Amino acid sequence: MTSIPLGPLMLATERLIALVLIAAFLFLGSRIARRTATHADTAAWRALLFGLVAARLAFVLANLDAYRTEPLSALAVWQGGFALWPGVLAALVTILAMLRRTRAAFLLGGAAMGLALAASLLTPMTRPAPHPLPPGLMLGTLEGQTVALDDLRGRPFVLNIWATWCGPCRREMPMVVDVARDATIPVYLAYAGEDLPRIREYLENEGLSGKRVLVDPQGQAIPALDTRALPTTLFIDGSGMIVSSHVGEISRAQLTAQIEALERTPQ
Q1: Which of 34, 98, 143, 199 has the fewest CB atoms below 10 angstroms from its CB?
Q2: Which uninterrupted H or E stretch holds 24?
Q3: How far separated are the first and last CA of the chain, in Å rounded?
Q4: What are the backbone angles phi and psi of residue 179, rounded to the nearest 5°?
């Protein structure tokens, strides 16, 4: 997943596309309302609301095992996780219920379908192609041992990059540690540019295990991965290829789904 800088913030490209398409849908709703002298603008807002709810609900139901562990995380919509087509179906039903079989309903429904197709085509295009993990990267354990990422080749692994000063990182950390404990492939947590005493103090205060924690004492490995935002989670296959990434806070459902996909990746 790529990201775009917005001042001091980083916005995932997929989310920017979604925001732009949502704005376009509401704009078209207002134009259709004026041209047809109907309340198509109100219908657009309600279709958006019911569509988002349905899209989120469908995603949660599809990943119910992950949400059973943390039911309230289903409300953490900022983490992402929406099923496009169930949401579009709910939006179309809302439009038909409000505008009946009118020209405005046809126009607004067509706009919804057209923008949904645009989303389904544009979103995959924003995802970076698989690319090799930079060679020669060295990280360290909390005990001072050196870990060469090149030595991890041969089996897939996950690298979650974060820092103690990063709010979204701190929110997702307990969940990532929990998933790492039971995952069938290694999940490492790499701290970006912080010293050992501060890291140890943070883990101790939060009651978190440091078993899979790695550090970048020289401050060279993390920059080489070109992670422009924290947290970033990289999914690396057994041949050393970064097959996918997630910029920003990740949900348990997304993390476990990506791990399962990584397990299925041919080596």
Answers
A1: 143
A2: helix 13-36
A3: 22
A4: -65, -40
